[in-house]
């Protein structure tokens, strides 16, 4: 999943401290190839809904007016 809140500066917006994201190595070990006993449309219906509503979830925040200083809370 793409997390624009982690790269919001690329869009000219002020970077805030993003919430923690699960980056567990266990997630990368999941291999479901060959598994046919799940209804994947039901399994991923939340993500399909988020994709369908993507136009209503556009990154919008305070514009970046100046460079981030060394002691800005994001940099610390």
TrEMBL record:
A Pfam family of this chain: PMD
InterPro entries: AminoTfrase-like_pln_mobile
Protein name (Swiss-Prot/TrEMBL): Aminotransferase-like plant mobile domain-containing protein
Domain of life, per lineage: Eukaryota
All copies of domain Aminotransferase-like plant mobile, residue ranges: 1-60
UniProt source species: Stephania japonica
């Amino acid at each position: 999943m793409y997390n624009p809140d982690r790269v919001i500066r690329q869009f000219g917006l002020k970077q805030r401290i993003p919430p923690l994201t699960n980056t567990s190595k266990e997630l990368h070990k999941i291999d479901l190839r060959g598994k046919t006993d799940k209804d994947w449309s039901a399994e991923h219906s939340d993500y399909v809904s988020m994709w369908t509503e993507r136009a209503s979830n556009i990154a919008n925040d305070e514009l970046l007016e100046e460079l981030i200083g060394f002691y800005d809370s994001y940099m610390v």
